[in-house]
Structure formats: C-alpha cells, structure tokens
Amino acid sequence: MVTLRLLLLLILLGMGPLPAWAQVTVSGAWVREAPPGAPALAAYLVLHNGTDRPRTLVSVEADGFAHAMLHRSITHADMAHMEHVDRLTLAPGETLRLEPGSYHIMLMRPARDLREGDTVRLTLRFADGTEQTTRVPVTRQPPPAP
User: Fold this and answer.
1) Distance CA 138, CA 60 (A)
2) Which residues pair with 131 in a beta bridge?
3) Backbone angle region of 101, left / alpha / beta, with phi > 0 → left and psi within -120 to 50 → alpha
4) Taking a C-beta distance cutoff of 8 angstroms, is the pair 11, 116 a contact?
5) Angle in degrees, CA 68, 28, 54, rounded to 5
C-alpha cells in the first residue's frame, strides 16, 4: 500500500504546473504605443478564469515602468474619467476584457520610449499569492478579435 501511495505521489509531482484550463489565462494582450515622452501607457488584455473558484487580481507589475495600476474608464455628466480599481475578481468560468473605454492597466513613467514591436513584461498578482507573467507587445492598434 505504501508503494502505491509513493508511486501516485511521484506521478502527481511529475505532472508539472497546472494545465491552462485550471488557471487564469491571458489572451489578446497589447500595450498602446504612445508619443515619445508620454508619462503613461495603457495595457489591455482578456482574462479568463478557468478554475473552479473565484480569482482576484490585486496588483500588476510592469518591467521598465515606475508602477502599474488597475484602472477603469467611466463617463459621468458627459465627462470621461479614470478611476483606480483596487482589485478585479473573476468568478469561476468568467472572462473579463480589459479594453479601451473600460478596465485597463495604466503603466506609469516608462524608463524609455516604447515603439511598435517592443514588448512589456507584466506580472499579474492574485489575492491567493500566485503570480502570472506574460510578455505583451506594443502596437498602435489592438490585435484582431479571436
């Protein structure tokens, strides 16, 4: 019996990281190219919670930027505003689009000007302590919809 348990443990350990369906997946990611000297850029992406429990995004880190923040664009009294968002919670199976005019990631004070073809490394931090890192292309236009 002990041998069977040991064998099962070794098999499970050898399986590696969780499969994509058991994580929050990132797709359609892009950073909008900004004019030279711009103090901030915006990153957009699609998050899908493939787990069986809620996942809460609590912060983002972006290499080459002083800091990154979750924001939401809102319109109030015919005026567009941005507001800081502390966290984004995705229910099991939920897909959330961070897109122009809605939720997005503000990338503040770039260390250098970024041009189309460059990439930005984003690290997404979740409330449960897990992190996911993705490389995001800088483009002038969003990628084609899937």
Assistant:
1) 17
2) 125
3) left
4) no
5) 70
- pLDDT of residue 17 exceeding 90: no
Task: List domains and CATH numbers for the chain.
Answer: 24-135 (2.60.40.1890)
DSSP secondary structure, 39-92, as one string:
SEEEEEEEEEE-SSS-EEEEEEEETTEEEEEEEEEEEETTEEEEEE-S-EEE-T
* Phi/psi at 4 (5° precision): -65, -45
Which pair of tokens denotes residue 41?
């850029």
> With contact defined as beta carbons under 8 Å apart, do 96 and 103 qualify?
yes
Q: What DSSP letter does each residue of 4-48 carry, written as one string?
A: HHHHHHHHHHHT-SPPGGGSEEEEEEEEE---TT-SEEEEEEEEE
Residue keyed to tokens 């809460």: 56
For 29-84, the pLDDT digits (tens) are 999 999 999 999 999 999 999 999 999 999 999 999 999 999 999 888 888 889 99
Contact predicate 40/107, CB 8 Å: yes
Beta-carbon-side half-sphere exposure of residue 12 (alpha carbons within 13 Å): 6
